[in-house]
Protein 1
Amino acid sequence: MKLHLRIWRQPGPDAPGHMARYELDGVSPDMSFLDMLDTLNEQLIAEGCEPVAFDHDCREGICGACGVVINGEAHGPERTTTCQLHMRHFSDGDTIDVEPWRAAAFPVVKDLVVDRSAMDRVIGSGGYVSVPTGSAPDAHATPVPKPDADEAFTHAECIGCGACVAACPNGAAMLFTAAKVVHLASLPQGRVERESRVLDMVGTMDEESFGGCTVTGECATACPKGIPLTSIAAMNREYMRAVRKRH
């Protein structure tokens, strides 16, 4: 396939950016999107040009580092991560726009790389459980009802990629924060900090540059792991419960 690429280039956080045009030939339908970017960078390096900077790590849809906006959609046209998106979903001669996550909380570092440390700070404020030091407890020492386990596993699938923030017209992080809160609140081990967790994580989220949630639903549509929109309502219930208990 031959592709016409328009890619966001920005040399640094304080520098102006622009969409640069590239032509790339010989793209295999079996390539992943990141393989295609690697091929472009090989071409650019051979031409003596600066390669495109983009984030990636596991390339298995697990770490969440790879996210970019493709033709206006977070992670592209399929409900998967950018690294798991294959070029068979595009056609010969297509024009593809590639941009970084667009959100106030995710400042651009370079090209397609953004700083997502705001999400790390939200997790750091309460996304943990208290456990005694020493050896690991037996696997069945704390029974967990099946519905609670299913709820926890559903929300534990969040990989913190930030697609929900990038897709939200307000740049809100409610779905991400809700996934972390509801995951731990569903388990007995997570109920020690149940109240402080939701208050601290929502408080930190509000202190960062995330926008307010108006429940447009774009976050759940873009989520590659299928975190449901109902998670936000569940977190709101946790928050109101914590507020009432505090007062």
Protein 2
Amino acid sequence: MSDTPVIGVLALQGDVREHLDALAAADAVARPVRRPDELAEVDGLVIPGGESTTISKLAVLFGLMEPLRARVRDGMPVYGTCAGMIMLADKILDPRSGQETLGGIDMIVRRNAFGRQNESFEAAVAVRGIEGDPVEGVFIRAPWVESVGARAEVLAEHDGHIVAVRQGTALATSFHPELTGDHRVHALFVDMVREKRTAGSL
């Protein structure tokens, strides 16, 4: 078995190309995922930003919602940024009508908590598990985590709010590291995928 993990990027909406590039820079084979058969071929998955309600509806339309839930339940490593964080939350404080999530992280998330599109900003974020300087995070209509359960580990906070969380093989950030050229968060996720593959082959 090759040591290079195959990681998909959910290609329904959002910064798909940027995530593919960041994963490739972090020594993964990166592929877009739009169909259940493509999902079945990857070792891990990134859920990019965008509009969480739209991603939810498109995942149902493309027949991906239930296969995604099943893979996440079975422990497939998954990383969600911004809207992807909302998709991984077990609960949303203010969901729109018909909005569904995949779940996977015991957290309650507030949508658009950091403000509107024109209130987007960049900030240095110290992320537990990433050495060196803080990560430069891009916050675009970003959510924050209101609270986490006992199984979830807080990795970073900004301005008193939780912005990065990990639970087992699931990782989520409020911000977009794929837009900065700093691939350390993606490298952390690639390492998570690699560890899961190694454990599965023992």
Protein 3
Amino acid sequence: MELDGRVAVVTGGTRGVGAGIARAFLAAGAEVVVCARRPPDAAVEAGRRTAHFEPADLRDPAVAGEFIDRVIRRYGRLDTLVNNAGGTPYRLLDAADAARHARVLELNLLVPLTVSLAAYEHLRRARGSVVMIGSVSGTRPSPGTAVYGAAKAGLESLGRSMAVEWAPEVRVNTLVPGMVRTELVPLHYGDEAGVAAVGRTVPLGRLAEPDEIGEVAVFLASPRAAYVSGASLLVHGGGERPAFLDAATVNKED
């Protein structure tokens, strides 16, 4: 298979988008390590292959370094780091103080930097790659998740600079998903009717599935993307129809 003999780490890879990415790497033949603060309810599997779980709170740089060390002791190499861990609750800016908002920045921007630095020497020796998992929230206004959006915008910028500094040994790219149908979808969009209504706002007519995001992550880590570095790849089903088109009173179809 395409990634036979390769070792991939997927942070936050026990559920949602992260689990979809882990399954795609397993299906492509890689050995996969997933991490999170708590063990998953069920192992992350694809076919007859299972991802190895390591507990780690990556907000602590020492813990992040120890986690990468354990991966190297177990597998002897590291080829791909997928910085997926992140997230945020819905919170308007004036509903919390700066210290609480800073924790969102820490998880979504500083943690990927911390883990990337811990993994750098191993990735360099393997001539490997980093895949940042961004968000369309970092490309447009993000009311209710403004600090998360700012962190994801910063993550793209970090990835572009990292791609220059770490070339040619390590490629760095950012995968920018739109809305994805995960276990947390009801918290954001409501019941099935709400999810379907939100899906209709996407040109392709639906939300992405986690495994579809995973397939793109595998591409970015694979030899097929050997000349792709410093890129941001939108995986958002066509994005969003501009609101002004529906508000205009001209050029309406009968």
Protein 4
Amino acid sequence: MSAADEILDIVDENDVVIGQSPRGEAYARGLRHRCVFIQARDAEGRLFVHRRTPTKLVFPSLYDMFVGGVVGAGESYDTAALREAEEELGVSGLPRPVPLFKFLYDNGAGRTWWSAVYEVRCDLPVSPQVEEVAWHDFLAVEDVERRLTDWTWVPDGLAAYQRLKDYRATGRVG
């Protein structure tokens, strides 16, 4: 099955399931669905950063400071977070990602999705999926901050990153 054929739960503005749709159709029609964002850090506290492959359905070739993806139909956010983190990092036996908060991402052009943000420590050697990740490294937070204006980042990842910074600074989601 291709990624475009994966079945997603379609949700309303309150994150209540109202139907299901193949991923490709959900993207094409702007149907609200669920996603997970997992910030992975190594033992030194550096962030896993990667550039997406040019074949990705959404945001091809852009940089991201999260691993993650869509939540499948009937799947919980927590299950999706562990699955996506292990898939994208190319590891097995990762600790369960810690849920931090959820927010409704809105790109301002009618595209919205519920986004659950997690964090996980990855002390395992990573081997990211070549179909998903074109380049990767663990970078110090200061290095990521310096590159925020130099690199082209996925917009939903930037929104999640800013909310995560606010959350860590104030205990609230901005």
